[in-house]
């Protein structure tokens, strides 16, 4: 048995050749990974640019929030969207929306801007529309009182800061985003045959049925 | 009062991404190094300890470590390098930044913030990955070893990669120790030196950190926590995004399997939105 183990050693030349082969494989692997990473980033930017062009062309509108909600509802989460018009628009509607005293008592003053800049000041309560907003939803020009009985969620009164956008504590954004190219990007011709790469990530998509089903 | 204050501030914003994006090549170097490291270590392992054991009738070692573990590890590594997480593309700017937008999830409100770059209110747990420069839904973290964002779409594959690396490291370690024990009577030649020490050290060094990482990620998935998010104290321990241990694992492993995002987005809007009307703009 011991002599068998000694005989199993590789000759030195084979060891050298094998090490050379391993080095070659390592170099090829590293080069392939670097190339594919470069190609992946390039492809992401191309897809994002094509997506922006499709949005500019107005083929459809989409709401990432609605997608987010629906996706979670499919897996048993109880999720819904409340949206409200800008605070300045609905200042006069405060009394109507404050009709539920129960919820007024439950809401602290800092409730609506807890995630905001701490230096923000409270201006006026902002009511919410407790309804699932589907697709594009324009701000209401004249706010309508909401029927609380028709909503599964109680109406909450948000104390919103006027003109204080919710961006004060966002992480610093980069000047150019692969998924959200700037609007100042140079215009390109919209080639709708390129939509396949948007829809499925592979090359099996036709733009016409995609648009027609909308 | 405390209840609502605890429920609201769910967004973690204190990450400080690099202001100047690093070049793509520089970010990919570590990923390339990870792949390069796997090839020679596995090559040495199969050429020396596995060959010795196989030639002496111990076929179980190369069969177990070779086909299932190495193939699984390498394929999951390649897939994780080049897979896309759930990337949210630019919205249609239909609502505007002044629209108050709150998402209710299991009776907990999330006050959403408007993102001017992507033109929509950012859903909970959706962050801009500063290294990949994309907006990722349910961002877990950015894995520098594969230079990719780990989101809900590829978190399962990340868990698979860590698990397969743990199993591979453990199997390599066991095989090398067996080889060392059975060749103690032999002099320290080239084969023994390369085949045992060089192969034993990397799996032995990586095994413990990988096991710790696997346990941490398994706990995060079980409790629906995310690394990129603060550990907020929810309503007396109530987590609105927690589906339970089994539900969280099902959500992580199975919810991501589906069509690509854009087609899915349109389909879902149509399925759940009876009032949705496609807007056809005159601009082109």
UniProtKB/TrEMBL annotation, chain A:
UniProt superkingdom: Eukaryota
From the record, give the transmembrane residue ranges: 12-38
InterPro entries named in the record: TEX38
**What UniProt keywords apply to this chain's record, in alphabetical order?**
Membrane, Transmembrane, Transmembrane helix
PANTHER family linked to this entry: TESTIS-EXPRESSED PROTEIN 38
According to UniProt, the name of this protein is Testis-expressed sequence 38 protein
- Species source reads Ceratotherium simum simum
Q: Which gene encodes it?
A: LOC101403194
TrEMBL record, chain B:
Q: What is its EC number?
A: 2.3.1.225
- Where would you find this protein in the cell? Membrane
Q: Does the keyword ATP-binding apply?
A: no
Keyword Ribosomal protein among UniProt keywords: no
* UniProt superkingdom: Eukaryota
Reaction catalyzed:
L-cysteinyl-[protein] + hexadecanoyl-CoA = S-hexadecanoyl-L-cysteinyl-[protein] + CoA
**Membrane topology summary:** Multi-pass membrane protein
User: Which InterPro entries does the record cross-reference, listed alphabetically?
Assistant: Palmitoyltrfase_DHHC, PFA4/ZDH16/20/ERF2-like
Please give the chief subcellular localization of this protein: membrane
Which residues belong to any copy of the Palmitoyltransferase DHHC domain?
114-230
Q: Which UniProt keywords apply?
A: Acyltransferase, Membrane, Transferase, Transmembrane, Transmembrane helix
Q: Which residue ranges run through the membrane?
A: 20-47, 59-80, 157-181, 193-216
Q: What is known of its domains?
A: The DHHC domain is required for palmitoyltransferase activity.
Entry's family note? Belongs to the DHHC palmitoyltransferase family.
Q: What is this protein called?
A: Palmitoyltransferase
- Origin species, per record, is Ceratotherium simum simum
User: Which lineage is the organism of this entry classified under, starting from the top rank?
Assistant: Eukaryota, Metazoa, Chordata, Craniata, Vertebrata
Gene from which the chain derives: LOC101405488
